């Protein structure tokens, strides 16, 4: 892997950073009513889909109604998590001063408490993107997702762990904040996890009560069908979120970095790290909306706090800047990126460094990695 310092000259890095700063400022200066109207329309659509989905499950004795209900509820949960929750909690709409769009007040339809997620995602992941042993999203503490992670027999289960994480993704995100791998290493005590655990248990109880107790009971004799329908919608959302997030972070050629090479990095070097450590997914407008525009993961990592609806508008300019500086712009259709991720998961289950480059000495049991 070519080091960050070897990519561009110090002068180029400085100019590169200025160009991206200028691009960001142009977007910020242009924010206005159209952005507010967009997110309000998405919220209105999400709520309509949820009401329709819940309502159709009341007629679940008719198979077409049950299927339609699950489909509508799945879309509602995807929109809530991806285009609304993820983006609002990033502070993309804090400039509006609208309470329902406040990053600090928003709570999503997910077992992971928003407060915990804002720390592990907004701060840790987006500050230390793809820095080994700093960005805990690299493998989420259970997977080997980079060849620099020293192999351990535990990683033979990589494909199994990845499959379980995909199926139970919201629960994986919830447990992420317990930092279990650090507890096992003696770097964190169980006592330190008590406050986090309380928040997790409260939020999980609320979500379980809503999807698996309250709404099924409201449908009377159809309760079992409603419960299965809600579980199916959560499963669809989990698989979709896993696919989008992993395709934005772990395809071939997405790079990771050591703490040493990122010490005292400039703004331009930080931008460079975001580009080298991200990948996009091509698709149409609806696809981008359902992905929360995380199909533009490169643009999101560069500018996490500007409204995600703006990413498609600036993607061509970001790509042109990359080409001008001789930098890669990793993008491709979902099937290509997902296949690339799947191959990496399988290859990295085995000893060696299949993605090339020397292994970095990392603690065998520290199953961390980047997103």
Automatic annotation (TrEMBL):
EC number of this enzyme: 1.14.19.-
One Pfam family, short name: FA_desaturase
GO biological process, one term: lipid metabolic process
Domain Fatty acid desaturase: 65-331
Superkingdom per UniProt: Bacteria
GO MF annotations, alphabetized: oxidoreductase activity, acting on paired donors, with oxidation of a pair of donors resulting in the reduction of molecular oxygen to two molecules of water
GO-annotated cellular components: membrane
Keywords in alphabetical order: Oxidoreductase
Name of the molecule in the record: Acyl-CoA desaturase
Organism field: Amycolatopsis carbonis
């Amino acid at each position: 892997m070519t080091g960050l310092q070897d990519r561009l000259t110090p002068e180029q890095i400085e100019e590169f950073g200025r160009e991206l700063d200028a691009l960001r400022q142009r977007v910020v200066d242009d924010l206005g009513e159209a952005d507010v109207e967009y997110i309000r329309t998405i919220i209105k659509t999400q709520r309509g889909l949820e009401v329709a989905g819940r309502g159709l499950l009341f007629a679940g004795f008719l198979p077409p109604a049950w299927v339609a209900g699950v489909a509508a509820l799945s879309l509602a949960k995807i929109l809530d998590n991806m285009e609304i929750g993820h983006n609002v909690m990033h502070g993309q709409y804090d400039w509006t001063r609208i309470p329902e769009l406040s990053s600090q007040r928003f709570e999503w339809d997910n077992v992971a408490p928003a407060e915990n997620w804002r720390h592990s995602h907004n701060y840790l992941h987006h500050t230390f993107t793809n820095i080994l042993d700093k960005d805990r999203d690299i493998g989420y503490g259970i997977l080997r997702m980079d060849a620099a992670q020293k192999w351990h027999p535990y990683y033979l289960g990589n494909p199994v762990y990845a499959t379980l994480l995909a199926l139970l993704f919201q629960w994986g995100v919830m447990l992420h904040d317990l930092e279990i791998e650090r507890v096992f290493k003696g770097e964190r005590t169980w006592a330190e996890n008590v406050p986090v655990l309380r928040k997790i248990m409260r939020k999980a109880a609320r979500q379980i009560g809503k999807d698996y107790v309250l709404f099924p009971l409201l449908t009377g004799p159809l309760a079992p069908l409603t419960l299965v329908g809600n579980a199916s919608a959560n499963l669809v959302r989990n698989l979709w979120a896993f696919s989008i997030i992993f395709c934005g972070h772990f395809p071939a050629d997405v790079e990771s970095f050591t703490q040493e090479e990122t010490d005292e990095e400039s703004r331009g070097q930080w931008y460079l790290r975001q580009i080298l450590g991200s990948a996009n997914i091509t698709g149409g407008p609806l696809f981008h909306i359902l992905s929360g525009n995380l199909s533009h993961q490169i643009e999101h990592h560069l500018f996490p706090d500007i409204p995600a609806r703006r990413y498609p508008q600036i993607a061509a300019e970001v790509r042109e800047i990359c080409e001008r500086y001789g930098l890669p712009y990793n993008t491709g259709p979902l099937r290509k990126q997902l296949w690339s991720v799947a191959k990496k998961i399988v290859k990295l289950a085995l000893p060696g460094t299949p993605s090339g480059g020397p292994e970095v000495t990392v603690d065998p049991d520290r199953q961390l990695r980047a997103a």
